[in-house]
Amino acid sequence: MAYQVIIPAAGQGKRMEAGKNKVLLELNDLPILIHTLNVFQMDKACDGILLAINPEEEEEMKMLLEENQITKILAFVPGGKERQYSIHNALKQVKKDGIVLVHDAARPFVDKELFRPLIEAAENKGAAIFAVPVKDTIKKAAGDIVAETVERTSLWAVQTPQAFRISILKEAYQKAEEEDFLGTDDASLVERLGQEVVIVKGNYDNIKLTTPEDLYFAEAIIRKREQ
Ligand code: CTP
Ligand code: MG
């Protein structure tokens, strides 16, 4: 069950329109980054964290980690221009074999009580992702005209963490680099190896804080958890 986790926190948060990296915004007096790191700090199965950061934010982040007793950081790695490059930088620092999770700093509500089936699926099958069934009807369009209504029963909205055997994720990132492939999640790189990826049902409140209204949802989740 033991694992290391890569946490990319080196974005710009452009869609949040806060004028700074959204993971430094506070929810309930704590930066989003700290909410996320606390989950892994508290999880006994987590052997260490590799944190991808913007070098100009290193000092501020290190202070926050110290103030909040986050002690499991194995390495700070510089982020890249895209999330995928940030993760590749961190992955190069993962030495041991075993299981690695990748989890966005911008998903602070992840529930570690759900990790076991995800990690077991990665141990047994090589790769596993959290996802939830899509609730909306999804249509493909050509411009603003509907081209097709996609059958919903087979659609999943994908989240993090995503869990992998370290050797498989390293091979996938190597191949993506060689072929100049840019994916929107880690599993999409692994799929290109012909490797099966197991879907593990996650939780709808594991939202990624992306646009300003997500902060209202975040506050509602916090209130609900405090009840
Ligand atoms: N991330 C990263 N390096 C990048 C881009 C993103 O480490 N070059 C991280 C973000 O900090 C975030 C996670 O990847 O925790 C998911 O990315 P996203 O939600 O897209 O965050 P941002 O890229 O910061 O936001 P935006 O795309 O709106 O600018
Ligand atoms: Mg982004």
UniProtKB/TrEMBL annotation:
Annotated positions for site Positions MEP for the nucleophilic attack: R152, K208
GO molecular function: 2-C-methyl-D-erythritol 4-phosphate cytidylyltransferase activity
Site (Transition state stabilizer): R15, K22
Keyword annotations of the record: Isoprene biosynthesis, Nucleotidyltransferase, Transferase
Superkingdom assignment: Bacteria
Catalytic activity: 2-C-methyl-D-erythritol 4-phosphate + CTP + H(+) = 4-CDP-2-C-methyl-D-erythritol + diphosphate
EC number(s) on file: 2.7.7.60
Pathway(s) of this molecule: Isoprenoid biosynthesis; isopentenyl diphosphate biosynthesis via DXP pathway; isopentenyl diphosphate from 1-deoxy-D-xylulose 5-phosphate: step 2/6
Protein's UniProt keywords contain Transferase: yes
Matching InterPro entries: IspD, IspD/TarI, IspD/TarI_cytidylyltransf_bact, ISPD_synthase_CS, Nucleotide-diphossugar_trans
Matching NCBIfam families: ispD
PANTHER family with a match to the protein in the record: 2-C-METHYL-D-ERYTHRITOL 4-PHOSPHATE CYTIDYLYLTRANSFERASE, CHLOROPLASTIC
Biological role stated in the UniProt entry: Catalyzes the formation of 4-diphosphocytidyl-2-C-methyl-D-erythritol from CTP and 2-C-methyl-D-erythritol 4-phosphate (MEP).
Family recorded in the similarity comment: Belongs to the IspD/TarI cytidylyltransferase family. IspD subfamily.
Protein name in the entry: 2-C-methyl-D-erythritol 4-phosphate cytidylyltransferase
Native source species: Cytobacillus mangrovibacter
